[in-house]
Amino acid sequence: MKPAVIAGARPNFVKVGPLLKALRRAGIDPKLVHTGQHYDEAMSASFFTDLDIQNPDANLGIGSGSHAHQTAAVMDAFDQWLNNNDIDTVIVVGDVNSTLACTLVAVKRGLPVAHVEAGLRSGDRTMPEEINRILVDSVADWLLTPSADADENLRNEGAHASRIQRVGNIMVDSLFDARGRRPEVTTIDRLGLTDQPYALMTLHRAALVDDQIKLAEVITAMNTLSETLPVVFPVHPRTASMMSDLGVALSSRFHLTAPLTYLDFVASQAGAAIVLTDSGGVQEETTCLGVRCLTLRESTERPVTVTHGTNEVVGVNPQFALERALARLTEPVSDRRPELWDGNTADRVVAALQTRPQFQ
Ligand code: UD1
What we know:
Helix content: 40-55%
Strand order of the largest sheet: 3-2-1-4-5-6-7
Radius of gyration: 20 Å
Number of strands: 13
Largest sheet: 7 strands, parallel
Distance between the termini: 23 Å
Order of helices and strands: EHEHEHEHEHEHEHHEHHEHEHEHEHEHH
Bound molecules: uridine-diphosphate-N-acetylglucosamine
C-alpha cells in the first residue's frame, strides 16, 4: 500500500499523529499531505511538535478563505500533487473542508478513500461540517467509525455493510499518550489556578462566534460564572477577530489566552471542574478524561458522549448554560466510557485497510 494521509486543520493533526505511526509499524511508508488550511504556529506547528508528527511530504499552503475558495484551492493543489506522486490510497480524517476536497479529488481519479471518523451526523445541515461528512461518506470506500451510532447512521443511508467497520476513536490514542507528557509549567500554573477549581471554555463555530450579539450574550453569562469559579478561555483566531468590539467588561477572574498547544490543552482539560465548548473533539476528550462538559450547541454529532460519557448539550441560551454549569458542579460525574475508545484505534484502522470493501 502507498497511502497519502491528509491533514489540514487543528483537529486533523490529533488524528493523523497515531495513524502515521501505526502505518509505519505495519511496514507501510505513508506520505503526509498538509493542506495548509491551518498554518499558524499555535494552530498547526505546535501540534506537530507535541504529537511528534513526521514532517509533511507536501504543504499545499492553502490558508484561509471562503468555503468555496478553500475547498477548490485544496482540490486543485492536491490533484497536481497526485500527478507527481505514486499513491494508491488516500486516507482522510474528520470533517473539515480539506477532508472533503481531497476525497473528491481521489475518487474522481479512481483512488480508493478511507475515512477515519465516518458516520457522525448532527442532523443539522446548516453546519458546514455536516455537509462535508455526508459527502465524504457517500463516496469513501472504507467507512471507519468511532461508535455504534455512526454505524447506524451509515446503514440508514444505505452504505454496504462491508464498507462499515467500527474501529473506535483515534483521538483517544493521542489523548492517552498525552496524559503522561504534561508540560513542566502549564497555562493553568501560569494563571495561578493550579489545585483550584476552574472552568475551561472554547468557542469557535461560525454559528455562534460570527454572530456578535450571541457571542456577547454567552461571554456575559460566562463572566457571571467567573464570579463563582474562574474561567479560562483560550481564544481561537476566528473568535479573536470577533472579541475586540463586544462591549463586555470582563472580570479579572475571566482569563483570555492565546490558543494552547496540544499538551497544555489536554492538561487544562484534565484539571478543569467543568468544560464549556462548541467543539466536537473537546466533547470526546472530556468524556475520556472524566470531566464534566457542557456543549453550547443545539445538537451534537457525537451523541455517545452524552449517553456514555460526561457531556450535556445545553443549546445556546446563555442563561440556561449558566444555570446548568452551576448545577453540574454539584452533580456526580459519569464514569462510563464508549466501547473501543481505548487508545488502540490506529492499529485497528491499519488492520481494516488490509481488505478493500465492496462498494455496493
Ligand atoms: C475549521 C473547521 C472546523 C474545525 C476547526 C478547528 C471547516 C469547515 N471547519 O474551522 O470543523 O472544528 O477548523 O479549528 O473546515 N486562522 C488563523 N490561523 C490559522 C487558521 C485560521 O488565524 O492557522 C483564522 C483565519 O482568520 C480564518 C479563521 O481562523 O479565516 C477560520 O479558519 P478556517 O480554517 O476557515 O475555519 P475554522 O473556524 O478554524
